[in-house]
């Protein structure tokens, strides 16, 4: 290993570990959305509580662009290193405190209010983290290898989600179901503080980006990054092009392939939560290396072609994939065994292929009216599990195609002195607004279609990512030019 390569691996390790932890912190909330909805929101309407949780989850995404502006400005003024050390501490503290908030039953509406405030702080922190880490690594990488080296940072978002799922599974495995539901769900939030401390110690020893340090020593840094990024028509054109021609589509593909897939499996297909976490974890583990593959390939064939193909495949294949997912476990197509058991409000059904379905009926009051609902939990067999792993893995491949090259693509679009600010905003609007709103919007579309009696209600949530990705694909194909990414090498 050459000295230069050894040096960049140190940079990637330090940057990636901190970024992974920030994604872990951010996604613990989403991974536990079903549980959180019962803790911090009124229990009289489970559907409304879950939608409120998704809305709170989305709020963290909505404020990410503001974090990008605030911390991006700091990063271009004082440096990359110190800025994303601050974001790391802010994220870790907010995540830990979410795990400490008393339940709705204890403090009433103060609980969802505090969760929302801390969720907003998480979003602000992540808004400043990603741009700093991607810029920092890119500015250490050799000129013609930026796609390869920055793709390692791209793995951290998926790895953070994977680690969050594994910590949740480990916590569930050592606690009883009752203990996890009572207090054990808080453990993954508490664990993050230890991870943040270790990462802080590692980052503290890092040096400033050599490219930024050189610009600063020569007096070439920006005095007003916000004005130069967005007040300059020439640069603003590239900011808008990056957003509408790339990150907007990339954002919805990312969240469909990972977060919406998880939500769909749990809430639409009613599969047992632990089984979903396990199969999603396997799909993510198998798919993650392809971030590096497509990042490396983008150095050779260009960023645009890989990202555009990824969007096109997602647009064409989402509906067939989700149709296959839904029908794979649809008990209407399975043979029910005669020996079913009933106990009070609970009925357990078994099927000849090994599938088991538990239906629990309960009554709750909504605005003075009593409603009876049935909660279904499906335990799937090994064959169905591997089929679902394959179908989620395909979606993760789409994610790696659009996301693997995006960091290098954005870094190369903007000059050093305003790079942190300029690249962070389109990235976080595309991912935070368009991508972050996806779980809430798609779940609402599915719920609305189901209530209206649509036979294919389970596919309605896909219209949002398909439309957004289609718009981005058209703009990207027409207006993105390969020459853009050689302007600031």
Automatic annotation (TrEMBL):
Single annotated GO MF: transmembrane transporter activity
Domain (Major facilitator superfamily (MFS) profile) ranges: 11-484
Transmembrane segments: 47-70, 82-104, 110-128, 149-171, 183-202, 238-258, 278-298, 305-322, 386-411, 423-442, 462-480
Pfam families: Sugar_tr (PF00083)
UniProt keyword annotations, A-Z: Cell membrane, Membrane, Transmembrane, Transmembrane helix, Transport
Primary location class: membrane
UniProt membrane topology term: Multi-pass membrane protein
rRNA-binding found in the keyword field: no
Localisation: Cell membrane
GO (cellular component) term, any one: plasma membrane
Family matches, as InterPro entries: MFS_dom, MFS_sugar_transport-like, MFS_trans_sf, Sugar_transporter_CS
Protein name (database record): Predicted arabinose efflux permease, MFS family
Organism: Flavobacterium caeni
């Amino acid at each position: 290993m050459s000295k230069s390569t050894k040096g960049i691996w140190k940079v990637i390790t330090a940057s990636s570990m901190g970024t992974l932890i920030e994604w872990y912190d951010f996604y613990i909330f989403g991974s536990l959305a079903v549980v959180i909805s019962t803790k911090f929101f009124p229990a009289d309407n489970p559907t409304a509580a879950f939608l409120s949780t998704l809305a709170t989850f989305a709020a963290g995404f909505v404020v990410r662009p503001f974090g990008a502006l605030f911390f991006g400005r700091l990063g271009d003024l004082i440096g990359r290193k110190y800025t994303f050390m601050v974001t790391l501490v802010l994220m870790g503290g907010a995540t830990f405190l979410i795990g400490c908030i008393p339940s709705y039953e204890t403090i009433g509406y103060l609980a969802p209010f505090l969760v929302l405030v801390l969720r907003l702080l998480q979003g602000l922190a992540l808004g400043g983290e990603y741009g700093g880490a991607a810029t920092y690594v890119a500015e250490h990488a050799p000129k013609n290898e930026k796609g390869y080296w920055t793709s390692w940072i791209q793995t951290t978002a998926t790895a953070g989600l994977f680690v969050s799922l594994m910590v949740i599974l480990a916590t569930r495995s050592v606690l009883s179901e009752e203990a996890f539901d009572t207090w054990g769900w808080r453990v993954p939030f508490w664990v993050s503080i230890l991870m943040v401390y270790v990462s802080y110690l590692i980052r503290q020893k890092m040096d400033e980006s050599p490219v930024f340090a050189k610009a600063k020593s020569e007096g070439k840094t920006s005095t007003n990054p916000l004005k130069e990024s967005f007040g300059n028509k020439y640069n603003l054109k590239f900011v808008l092009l990056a957003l509408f021609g790339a990150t907007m589509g990339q954002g919805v593909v990312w969240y469909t392939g990972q977060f919406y897939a998880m939500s769909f499996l749990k809430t639409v297909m009613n599969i047992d939560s632990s089984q979903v976490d396990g199969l999603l974890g396997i799909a993510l583990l198998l798919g993650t290396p392809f971030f590096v593959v497509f990042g490396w390939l983008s150095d050779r064939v260009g960023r645009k072609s890989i990202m555009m193909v990824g969007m096109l495949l997602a647009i064409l294949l989402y509906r067939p994939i989700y149709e296959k997912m839904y029908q794979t476990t649809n008990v209407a197509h399975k043979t029910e065994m005669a020996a079913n058991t009933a106990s009070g409000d609970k009925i357990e059904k078994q099927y000849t292929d090994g599938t088991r379905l538990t239906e629990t009926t309960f009554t709750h009051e909504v605005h003075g009216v009593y409603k009876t609902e049935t909660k279904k939990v499906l335990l799937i067999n090994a064959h169905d599990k591997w089929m679902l792993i394959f179908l989620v893995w395909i979606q993760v491949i789409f994610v790696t195609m659009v996301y693997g090259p995006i960091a290098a693509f954005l870094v190369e679009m903007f000059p050093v002195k305003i790079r942190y600010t300029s690249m962070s905003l389109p990235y976080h609007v595309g991912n935070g607004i368009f991508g972050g709103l996806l779980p809430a919007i798609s779940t609402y579309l599915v719920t609305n279609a189901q209530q209206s009696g649509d036979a294919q209600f389970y596919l309605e949530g896909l219209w949002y990512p398909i439309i957004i990705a289609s718009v981005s694909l058209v703009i990207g194909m027409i207006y993105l030019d390969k020459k853009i990414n050689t302007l600031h090498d």
